[in-house]
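User: Could you go from structure to sequence for me? I need the amino acid at each position, not a summary. Structure tokens:
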């Protein structure tokens, strides 16, 4: 028994040991498996955490920042541009951009509203709700913002992977207010909002357009806006804040504000009033002479180089710089479109359709046209200066002592150089003439002789000294540079034609700067358009001073040349620029460019001649030749600088001087024609009235019969030119209230005066220094013939002489 019990006990004890061991084994295996599985399960998680926290830390940090913060740019205010008198030529005003977040618009439809109690999303219903909200947004935007493209808006609204889509730019305040009200009423600020920006405005529209340029999305694109873009644009600021999950901006300790720095203001040397005078004169000449290739004009202070005005046609409106406004340019664009289309059609390797070819042609022609209107003929282009260049040759020859005022020159009408015969504008020749007469006659043979006296080397020295081979350095972009011979390439024939300003090209800026050196004491100055740069509070940070590049001729030579050039206007080819009371000097020019039918007519004038304050260059490019007489324009005017540019430039210079407050000084002959106020003679006898009128240098004629004067025309106190004839009414005779103005164009001075006064009007003459020449005729009148005007009205009549100014080169 005991033995059996002991055996069982041992068996029981052994089984217990084995059981415990088995349990421990199972436990250990379980723990091991759990550990292995746990580790295996957490390896991807650890890897993911490693990837997020270490490997791609920067990316996810940026993503989190983007989700949690709102970073808005704060536009700086672009500096204003003022004319010399403080008139605003360019300014910036606040506008707004309408921004949509398509992604946030989609998220604004809550999925919870389409999820049942068990958490199941009704996907179809949710997508239908999103689509409905998107469609509603498209409809709202089209109704809210005029002029939107519905197809484009629809695409933007449905671009749900994007958080920023620009619906419309440059929204004005009135329209922006309506949008704000919509956003508030419809609680759309989480995905539709306005951001402030700026828009450039040009209050004077197209005034000085090519000089000012314009601003596009990239900043200053042309003109001063481009040249001074870094100064004008300032530095944008930033607002960085946190935002809620719904996109609502929160201002807290984590907000960061960086103020915008406004741009500097510019004050120009350009005067808006003088600029308007230039542009008006250009347009008048284009109409009066049927000019086909535009025109240009520059007004400058010859002593400092400050540009008072610079104009070019065709021009544009920088408020809408891509629109072509010039009728002639639009016509050229249509012609070019057809020519380009024909060329594309002849060479069509891609086998495009006619419609596709025409679209290409229209695009190319438009690009050419818009570039043409942006380009300034006064800044970018070059031209043959013609006889205006003779002033520089004159100064060089006087400085070198190869000519003097006592020299004489004989002109037979032509001169032979090598194998070429070069003709004078006067085919019969000028005969024997003094130096001043040769300049006044704009005699080509005389200036060929002067050029030969200088010789190629001396001529070229002065050509360079007057700046004809270098840019002026004006603070405007795109300045052109002349095309001239190299010194070693010049031959005698080149010297001959260069002596009267042909067969080489310079820019108008080069030419006016060189001419200014002739009459300002001999100094070549650097032209400029920006006088000062200042902060918004008016503190000047930079001011432009006059820069004398070099002295070309002496003060004495400059004065001698100026005296001779004044005679060009008082006696020579520039006499159509004469204005009583002002001493104007200058030189005419007619450049036959070598292109059939294209002549550039110009006038370079300055005043007062004894102390020049302004110099003006005016040119018209290609007055259209008449089919019956190529020497005349289609409007009947002889094609030359003396007949076209001078009659426009003289009154322009006088207008500028009047504006500048320069006092008129009349000589003895001019004083007789100065305006006077008519005395009161009603009630007087004719004998007493005659005495009163004689004191005022006025004549009279009577109408009716009687002992005393019952009425007078014009009334007492009226301003009429001296020498006018006052009408005295006697007895029952009374003046009529109005009458028909006669047409006096083409008449002589006396004939026009008599015709107007017989009709009850008075004449104020202008345009030439001598009105009694057989070649002097009325070329324009302020009130056109056939129009009705009040009796006694003074009619301004422009007179001119037919003059030729050295345009001929028959090599």
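Assistant: Here is the amino acid at each position, in order:
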């Amino acid at each position: 028994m005991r033995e059996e019990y002991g055996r069982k006990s041992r068996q029981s004890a052994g089984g217990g040991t084995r059981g415990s061991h088995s349990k421990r084994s199972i436990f250990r295996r379980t723990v091991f498996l759990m550990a292995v599985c746990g580790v295996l399960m957490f390896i991807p998680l650890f890897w993911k955490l490693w990837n997020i926290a270490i490997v791609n830390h920067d990316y996810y940090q940026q993503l989190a920042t983007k989700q949690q913060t709102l970073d808005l740019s704060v536009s700086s205010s672009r500096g204003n541009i003022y004319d010399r008198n403080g008139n605003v030529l360019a300014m910036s005003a606040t506008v707004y951009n309408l921004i949509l977040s398509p992604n946030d618009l989609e998220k604004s439809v809550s999925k919870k509203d389409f999820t049942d109690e068990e958490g199941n999303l009704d996907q179809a219903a949710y997508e239908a709700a999103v689509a409905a909200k998107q469609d509603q947004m498209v409809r709202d935007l089209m109704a809210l913002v005029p002029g939107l493209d519905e197809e484009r808006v629809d695409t933007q609204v449905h671009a749900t992977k994007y958080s920023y889509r620009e619906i419309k730019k440059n929204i004005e305040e009135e329209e922006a207010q309506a949008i704000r009200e919509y956003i508030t009423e419809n609680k759309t600020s989480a995905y539709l909002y306005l951001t402030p920006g700026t828009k450039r405005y040009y209050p004077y529209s197209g005034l000085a357009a090519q000089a000012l340029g314009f601003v596009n999305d990239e900043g200053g694109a042309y003109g001063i806006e481009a040249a001074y873009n870094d100064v004008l644009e300032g530095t944008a600021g930033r607002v960085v804040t946190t935002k809620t999950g719904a996109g609502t901006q929160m201002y807290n300790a984590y907000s960061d504000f960086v103020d915008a720095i406004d741009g500097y203001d510019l004050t120009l040397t350009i005067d808006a009033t003088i600029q308007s005078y230039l542009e008006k004169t250009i347009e008048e000449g284009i109409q009066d002479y049927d000019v086909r290739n535009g025109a240009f004009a520059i007004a400058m202070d010859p002593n400092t180089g400050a540009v008072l005005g610079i104009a070019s046609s065709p021009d544009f409106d920088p408020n809408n710089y891509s629109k072509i406004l010039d009728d002639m340019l639009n016509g050229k664009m249509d012609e070019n479109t057809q020519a380009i289309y024909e060329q594309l059609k002849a060479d069509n390797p891609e086998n495009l359709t006619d419609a596709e070819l025409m679209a290409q042609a229209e695009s190319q022609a438009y690009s050419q046209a818009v570039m043409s209107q942006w380009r300034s003929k006064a800044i970018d282009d070059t031209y043959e200066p013609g006889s205006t260049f003779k002033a520089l040759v004159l100064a060089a020859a006087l400085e070198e002592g190869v000519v003097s005022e006592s020299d004489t020159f004989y002109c037979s009408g032509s001169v032979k150089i090598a194998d070429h015969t070069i003709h004078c504008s006067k085919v019969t020749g000028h005969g024997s003439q003094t130096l001043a007469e040769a300049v006044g006659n704009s005699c080509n043979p005389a200036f060929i002789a002067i050029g030969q006296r200088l010789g190629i080397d001396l001529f070229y020295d002065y050509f360079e000294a007057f700046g004809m081979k270098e840019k002026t350095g004006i603070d405007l972009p795109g300045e052109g540079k002349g095309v001239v011979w190299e010194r070693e390439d010049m031959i005698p024939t080149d010297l001959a034609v260069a002596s009267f300003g042909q067969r080489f090209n310079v820019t108008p800026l080069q030419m006016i700067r060189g001419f200014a050196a002739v009459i300002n004491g001999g100094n070549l100055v650097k032209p400029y358009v920006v006088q000062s740069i200042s902060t918004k509070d008016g503190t000047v940070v930079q001011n432009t001073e006059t820069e004398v590049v070099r002295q070309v001729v002496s003060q004495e030579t400059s004065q001698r040349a100026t005296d001779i050039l004044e005679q060009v206007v008082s006696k020579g080819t520039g006499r159509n620029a004469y204005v009583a009371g002002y001493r104007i000097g200058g030189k005419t020019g007619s450049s036959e460019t070598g292109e059939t039918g294209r002549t550039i007519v110009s006038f370079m004038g300055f005043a007062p001649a004894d102390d020049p304050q302004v110099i003006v260059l005016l040119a018209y490019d290609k007055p259209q030749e008449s089919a019956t007489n190529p020497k005349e324009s289609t409007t009947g005017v002889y094609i030359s600088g003396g007949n076209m540019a001078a009659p426009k430039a003289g009154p322009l210079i006088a207008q500028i001087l009047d504006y500048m407050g320069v006092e008129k000084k009349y000589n003895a002959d001019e004083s007789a024609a100065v305006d006077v106020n008519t005395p009161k003679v009603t009630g007087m006898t004719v004998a007493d009235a005659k005495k009163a009128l004689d004191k005022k240098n006025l004549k009279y004629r009577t109408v009716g019969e009687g002992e005393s004067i019952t009425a007078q025309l014009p009334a007492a106190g009226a301003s009429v030119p001296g020498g006018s004839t006052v009408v005295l009414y006697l007895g029952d005779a009374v003046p009529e209230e109005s009458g028909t103005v006669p047409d006096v164009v083409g008449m002589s001075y006396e004939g026009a005066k008599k015709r107007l006064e017989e009709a009850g009007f008075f004449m104020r003459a202008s345009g030439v220094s001598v009105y009694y020449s057989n070649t002097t005729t009325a070329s324009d009148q302020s009130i056109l013939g056939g129009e009705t005007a009040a009796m006694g009205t003074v009619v301004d009549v422009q007179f001119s002489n037919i003059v030729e100014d050295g345009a001929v080169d028959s090599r």
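One structural detail worth keeping in mind: The first helix runs from residue 2 to 55.
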